[in-house]
Amino acid sequence: MQNMNIPEHNLQLMILSQDEAQELVARQPGHWQIISIWGKLDGSPADFGRATRILHLGFDDVTADDAEEGFVAATEADIVRALEFTRQAWPGPLLIHCHAGVSRSPALAWVVLWDRLGATIPAAQEALDIVHRVRPDIEPNPHIMRLGVMHLCGNPAAEKQIWAKVEAMRRAMLFPGGPPQASV
Predict the structure, then answer these.
(1) CATH number at residue 111
(2) Cα–Cα distance between 102 and 35 in angstroms, integer?
């Protein structure tokens, strides 16, 4: 695990699992500003007493609320809180974690990077490329990404067009040679 410097934007970003995040913060006390995402299956929020600043967000890795099972999806309010936190945090070092570091934290990292880079279509691709470079084995949660597009776009007509392009970028990252073909 190494610090991921993004020199072209004067940023330091880590996207980690909860265990990796706790290990890193224990090794580098007082260095990181943290967005800690936890949900129903993750247990209690992690204790990061040695963090510079911390924002706890509570939502599950789902695309819609599943009240029957007790799962809660991210909301626009979660996106707003994360954006406010990162706008104050950067250019300082930022660590975003969820349970596995594969879905919720990369998606939220994409949202905050896209905001930082200007919330344009080219910035959407650049933010996705950076997130993928920081943590290569990811499957960003599309619900969280869509909430980011909705919030940052502010125009319902444009939001649909932008989301279609962003979702195409996300799928191209997940399936570089095209989606897998169903076997017959």
Answers:
(1) 3.90.190.10
(2) 15
Tell me, yes or no, whether 182 lies in a domain: no
Q: How far is it, in rounded angstroms, from Cα 71 to Cα 25?
A: 28
- Residue 20 inside a domain? The answer is yes
CA dist 34 and 28 (Å) reads 12
DSSP string covering 63-130:
SS-BTTTTB----HHHHHHHHHHHHHHTTS-EEEEESSSSSHHHHHHHHHHHHHHTSSHHHHHHHHHH
Give the count of beta carbons closer than 10 Å to the beta carbon of residue 42.
18
Predicted confidence at residue 68, as pLDDT, reads 67
Domain ranges, residue 165: 11-174
CB 119 within 8 A of CB 113: no
Q: Cβ–Cβ contacts within 10 Å for residue 124, how many? A: 25
What's the sign of the alpha-carbon dihedral 133, 2, 7, 13? positive
157 — pLDDT class (breaks 50, 70, 90): confident
Tens digit of pLDDT for each residue in 111-148? 999 999 999 999 999 999 999 999 999 999 999 999 99
